[in-house]
């Protein structure tokens, strides 16, 4: 892969339009099939991720085109300060070409430069991202479990 044609940048809320466009284009397709047709909900979600004091957002560009995003936040914890990745994606057209591996390596380098000590994320075991993250050296925090409760159907 020609890493020279890619550029890695820190993004903020001024980039929200292109972030929303890429995010929706990836996560409304297989295997996620999320329904982001409510533009106000999408706008609010992206703002929640990139518009806070502790938000940390990175982008990967091919030329002038945003092809990868990582949205999350800095979290201070007793074991060190971590980057909690809420969303990470590569454009559908660019998946499977090693670009995600390049992007994660850039994220790791940027986080080290910021003095962060850990990366943390959640993903489903039944999606391709699970194998991707394992391949990148992420491990399952076996002492942790994710809980959820549906309040609208109670």
Strand order of the largest sheet: 1-2-3-4-5
What do the pLDDT scores average to? Answer: 95
Shape designation: globular
**Can you say what the CATH homologous superfamily is?**
Gcn5-related N-acetyltransferase (GNAT)
**Radius of gyration (Å):** 16 Å
Number of helices, counting only DSSP H or I runs of 4 residues or more: 4
- CATH class category name: Alpha Beta
CATH architecture: 3-Layer(aba) Sandwich
Let me know the largest β-sheet. Answer: 5 strands, mixed
Backbone structural class: alpha+beta
How many domains make up the 3D coordinates? 1
Binned strand content = 25-35%
* Helix fraction by DSSP (H/I, runs of at least 4): 25-40%
Indicate the CATH topology. Answer: Aminopeptidase
Regions with little confidence, pLDDT below 50 for 5+ residues: none
Oligomer: single chain
Q: What separation lies between the terminal Cα atoms?
A: 50 Å
- Total DSSP E strands: 5
Structure report:
The protein has 154 residues and is α+β, with helices and mostly antiparallel strands. The protein has a single domain (3-135), classed as Aminopeptidase (3-Layer(aba) Sandwich). The protein has four helices and five strands, in the order βααβββαβα. The protein has helices at 16-27, 39-50, 99-113, 128-135; strands at 6-11, 55-62, 65-77, 80-90, 118-121. Strand 2 (55-62) and strand 3 form a beta hairpin.
């Amino acid at each position: 892969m020609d890493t020279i044609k890619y550029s890695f940048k820190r993004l903020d809320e001024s980039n929200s339009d292109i972030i929303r466009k890429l995010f929706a284009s990836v996560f409304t397709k297989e295997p996620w099939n999320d329904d982001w047709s409510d533009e106000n909900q999408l706008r609010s979600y992206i703002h929640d991720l990139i518009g806070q004091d502790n938000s940390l957002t990175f982008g990967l560009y091919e030329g002038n085109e945003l092809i990868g995003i990582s949205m999350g936040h800095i979290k201070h914890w007793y074991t060190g300060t971590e980057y909690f990745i809420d969303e990470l994606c590569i454009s559908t057209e660019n998946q499977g070409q090693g670009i995600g591996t390049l992007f994660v390596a850039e994220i790791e380098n940027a986080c080290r430069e910021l003095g962060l000590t850990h990366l943390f994320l959640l993903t489903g075991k039944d999606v391709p991202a699970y194998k991707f993250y394992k391949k990148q050296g992420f491990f399952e925090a076996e002492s942790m479990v994710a809980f959820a409760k549906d309040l609208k159907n109670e």
